Amino acid sequence: MADKIDLLDIEVWDGNMAASQAMRQAQIDVVAAYPITPSTPVVQNYSTFLANNQIDGEFVMVESEHAAMSGCVGASAAGGRVATATSSQGFALMCEVLYQASGMRLPIVMHVVNRALAAPLNVNGDHSDMYLGRDSGWIQADAFNAQEAYDLGLMAFKISEDHKVRLPMMIHQDGFMTSHTAQGVKTLSDDVAYNFIGEFKPMNAMLDLDRPATHGVQTEEDYHYEFKARQHHDLMTFAKAKTQEVFDEFETLTGRKYSMIQEYDMEGADIAIVCMGTSVETARLVATDMRTKGIKAGVIGIRIIRPWPFEEIKEALKDVKAVAALDRSSPNGALGMLYNELAGCLLQNAKPSILSNYVYGLGGRDLTKDNIKQVFTELKANADTGKLTTPTQQWISLNGEALNFF
Amino acid sequence: MLEIRWYSRAGQGAVTGAKGLADVVSTTGKHVQAFAFYGSAKRGAAMSAFNRVSDEEILTHEKYMEPNYVLVIDPALTYSTDITENCNEDTVYIITSHLSKEELIKSQPTLEGKKVFVLDCMTIARETIGRAIPNTPMLGALMKVSEMYEMDFFLENMKRVLKKLPQKIIDGNMLAIQRAYDEVN
Amino acid sequence: MAKNENNGWNDFDIGALLFSFDKETKNIATTLQEDRPYSNSNSFTASVADWRVMKPVFNKEFCIDCQFCWIYCPDMSIISRDKKMIGIDMDHCKGCGICVEVCPTNPKSLLMYDEHLEDEEALIAAWPAKEEK
After folding, report:
1. Hey, which of A153, A378, B21, C120 has its CA 20 to 30 A from A100?
2. Is A174 left (phi over 0), alpha (psi -120 to 50) or beta?
3. Chain A: residue whose CA lies nearest to B27
């Protein structure tokens, strides 16, 4: 039996420690991992807990991230509660197995500490790896700070392991800006946290010798399409419903409210920034500041990236005149992912907002309040004139000549 | 909001210092933030760490900072780094050096007219902790200069923050904090 | 996987998995194959007999029950009970001939014949004699 840890009501944790503590409190059976900056401390802390008898489980050191996710797939199919963490290049190497995990409907929880993708090599935070995973069939949640990495880290097991859902879940946090930034985190006691998550209930476990199952079967044109349709359906319906249900339960328990999208200062907003990660919080500050100057500015943070909150965004933006999509990943030959996804939502509104796209913060480039103020100023001009007054896509805080497209 | 910027070399404990400070401040009900930039992430490389303290929830995640305090725990960084970047006239500098305040300002004229405090964290750390880890002495100096907390309260809380270390090291750190508090000027 | 015309996208078990048996089983390892409740999607319920061009014929007279054929058969088609070779599962044998290759007796206890030769008694009656070396 693992020893418990008496936590303070508010612990000063960085995002990595917050994620590790959520993993500890969930009493994971297996972590298979290949540590990589900036997510290294997530699994390093876990192995310390294990060595200190603060968890009953197994830490499997493997030879690559591909093997790490493969180990997670094996352990999860065998019938255990499984989690891991990765970043950047490691995430990229895992990609093949991510699709196996979701197709096999294995409820693996993974903390993805977002970091840029090489080349050039860079250890700092942007959303390139997060974007890379968005068609992999995983539920993707985004934490904007350490508190949320902890909260979502607890909730993820409850969502993912539900027998109708049974889909793996990633919790994203910004490399360094969240992962290495210590802030006050309101904690749950070990017992309260574990009771909230609940016992792991195996389903079709390979180690259930009374009902042997073959996992990872082959289907060709006969049924592959039907399997994928079922998976998409369950992600769109069951995963979404369960996520909301768990958010509600968590709010009852802690008073902390989570929703598919997080709206800040959006009441009667004329202009809005839509973004993810720590930028959401910095943008909130600027929006509040704008409000004091009589400019109706708001911010929407995307909490659940997959399944994409189409209806919620449509509704939230229906009366907003001008919207900026902030993408922290190089679109490499297109408008940013958020721009395109938002455009799809806006298209169905009676009066679609004027939409513009800002690429920012690649490789950890600072996003300052001044940068955000500038975006709001441009949005206001769009709203006032009723047309796009800037190029559709701009690269902000970029050294050298201005770069923009369309 | 109170903002603090640390200058250090990787391995000298600026991150631990910043996080330790955040930990202590957090127990008083204030909101805190502690983070760092690692640059090339090798021991000995110049790096900076940051603290924010506020009565309100801290939402900003920008790295840009106009600090109230600049803490320099490696003597050479006063010369090789622009420690006055984005500072204002109220910014207070606490700098580790074997020089006197006058000698220091003479050797680095950009500090002319600034609010500068000096102490020798390196010597204090070596003589109390036994190793040149200048982070906790700097916190003692900060307590003196900022009058942030009563010394007894701060020492008690630092004992809790450092509780995983061997008792001898904890005792050394307590001495270091007290000496720095007494010696900074 | 086995195709069933009634399987729409919402009719499958979730996950890319198939169950070997239709119901819960106890002590499956000690249950003989013919007594196991194999599901329709298990390969045991499918016959590959028509894949064969040649078939192995078993002559009990020379068999020493060494179990080589049982170990080497890639389709688990050698039927052995209490470590005695008793015959071949002709639903799953594909006629590869490996059992004949590994049979150590002289003459061999297993030989390959054309699939269409039906009179096995006649084949056994005309079994080759011991080879002198």
Report:
1. A153
2. beta
3. A10
Q: How many CB atoms lie within 10 A of CB A21?
A: 27
Rg (chain C; Cα; Å): 19
Q: How far is CA A202 from the centre of its chain?
A: 25
Q: How large is the average pLDDT for residues A173-191?
A: 97
DSSP C131: P
The sign of the torsion formed by the CA atoms of A311, A316, A322, A327 equals negative
For the domain spanning C47-125, the CATH number is 3.30.70.20
Query: Looking at the structure, do residues A166 and A18 belong to the same domain, yes or no?
Result: yes
Which residue does chain A place closest to C12, by CA atoms? A227
Backbone torsions φ then ψ of B50, nearest 5 degrees: -140, 145
User: Hey, what CATH topology would domain B2-183 get?
Assistant: Pyruvate-ferredoxin Oxidoreductase; domain 3 (3.40.920)
Q: What is the mean pLDDT of residues B60-67?
A: 93
Report whether A159 contacts A243 (CB < 8 A): yes
Instruction: Measure C125 CA to nearest chain A CA, in Å.
Output: 45
Query: For chain C, what are the domain ranges?
Result: 8-46, 47-125
Could you tell me if residue A244 is inside a domain?
yes
A227 in contact with C, Cβ within 8 Å: yes
Confidence of residue C7 (pLDDT cuts 50, 70, 90): confident
pLDDT tens, residue by residue, C13-32: 888 888 889 888 888 888 98
For chain A, how many structural domains are there in total?
2
Domain boundary among A235, A254, A273: A254
Helical (H) or strand (E) element with A354? strand A354-359
* Best mutation target, A102, A166, A207, A226, to test chain C (most C CBs within 10 A): A226
d(CA B75, CA B81): 11
Q: Is residue A3 included in any domain, yes or no?
A: no
- Give residue-wise pLDDT tens across range A39-58: 999 999 999 999 999 999 99
Instruction: Report yes or no: A106 at the C interface, CB cutoff 8 Å.
Output: yes
Give the confidence band of B142 by pLDDT, cuts at 50, 70, 90.
very high
- Structure pTM? 0.91
- pLDDT at position B37 is 82
A contacts of B23 (beta carbons < 8 Å): 12, 182
Probe site for chain C from A97, A167, A204, A214 (most C CB atoms < 10 A)? A214
Residues A370 and A223 in one domain: no
A157 and A289 in a single domain? The answer is no
For every residue of B9-77, DSSP letters joined together read ETTSSHHHHHHHHHHHHHTTT-EEEEEEE-TT--TT-EEEEEEEEESS------S----SEEEE-STTH
Helix, strand, coil % in chain C, rounded to nearest 5: 25, 20, 60
Domain boundaries, chain B: 2-183
CATH number for position A151: 3.40.50.970
